[in-house]
């Protein structure tokens, strides 16, 4: 059972074309064959009429006729004479006959002149059928040439007709997972419109659902923020100088729990904001200045753990985007690098321009990410194989959303090489014109 519509169409049309060719060819052949036989008969008759009036009376091949057709005149005289065969011929009536002459089947025309002498015009049957066959075969040539041409044209037309369908499938296949943009109906054949309508309806519903879900997360995070803040404040107020040390430790645990929860809420909100906010108009943002600010913020923490945090390369680069979002990107990546680098390690940042893209590169000397985790590392709440104590695994998913929305790319690689280990994260964003970067620096 052929499941491809294209395959079925092509097979069906091939059968039709080949059958038509075969039937048409057979009829053309038969018709041309009998036509050729008749034509040879009529040329025998013409030669007969000509010989009737000609003065030369001599047996032999007829000149002026194609030598291959082997037409000959046999003089039989006024009364039967000569060989038994010639006598036998003499007895035939005037007109066309099938008979034998010189041991071979022949087509033969007998005529009697006014003076009573008779002659025969002969042609070997074998030659006649050969000539008729040749002529009939020639009528098949155009059909034989036409069939493959028709098949090619059919395949081409089918291919072209199905192209819009394949294009639509391609459009759906190559989409990002969260892309629920509607399919374009322009240029699509009329037969596809109902499907397009249904698919677009479905996409519309999925989009609404996604929207609803994002709003729910944003609302929930927002609603939780107020009570958590209040709880944090109350926990702060519990602190008193005459508290026993055991109590103090428990209070500290409570507070750090509160901090983590607040952090998580902030990140959830940030994620929801990235999902729900309409794309920002975007302004030229100095990436290098943002990176310097982030590094300055992280320096105390890095210093306390003897981590060498700094730039290997920094040049003025401007990208289009929301300054806060871009700061979130650099901050999350740099924070991770510092967090996962063991004490005494180093974290190197690079901000530069390369092939018309703005590049942020962050390298650390931490454990890197297990290769099997790299593809999933940007999924929300995914924390890899060695999850650190705090952190909910939302940081990188926020980074990824922001980068995706800015049509940028992010890549994680484990550095393996002489004396170097750790993670290298490379973010590439479209750079604002070189001149703009210069003017504002
Ligand atoms: N620089 C890094 N070195 C090693 N692992 C990292 C690095 N950055 C991120 N990871 C891994 O990716 C996971 C997800 O990171 P992230 O989304 O920032 O979540 P969080 O920092 O909240 O745990 C981390 O839990 C960690 O396992
Ligand atoms: Mg993080």
What would you say this structure looks like, in words?
The strands form three sheets. The chain has a five-stranded antiparallel beta sheet, sandwiched between helices. The protein folds into three domains: 5-147, no CATH class; 190-275, Signal transduction histidine kinase, dimerisation/phosphotransfer (DHp) domain (Helix Hairpins), CATH 1.10.287; 280-440, Heat Shock Protein 90 (2-Layer Sandwich). By secondary structure, the protein is of the alpha+beta class. Helix 5 (245-276) packs parallel to helix 9 and helix 6 (287-304) packs parallel to helix 7 (323-340). Helix content is 55%, strand content 19%. The protein binds adenosine-5'-diphosphate and magnesium ion.
Instruction: Report mean pLDDT, rounded to a whole number.
Output: 88
CATH architecture of the largest domain: 2-Layer Sandwich
Q: Enumerate how many helices there are, as a single number.
A: 10
Order of helices and strands: HEEHEEEHHHEHEEHEEHHEEH
Annotated CATH homologous superfamily of the largest domain:
Histidine kinase-like ATPase, C-terminal domain
Bound molecules: adenosine-5'-diphosphate, magnesium ion
Ranges with pLDDT <50 over ≥5 residues? 434-441
Per CATH, the class of the largest domain reads: Alpha Beta
The rough form would be described as rod-shaped
| Fold-level CATH name of the largest domain | Heat Shock Protein 90
The whole-angstrom Rg is 48 Å
Count the E strands: 12
Strand content: 15-25%
Membrane topology: Multi-pass membrane protein
Protein name: histidine kinase
Subcellular location: Membrane
EC number: 2.7.13.3
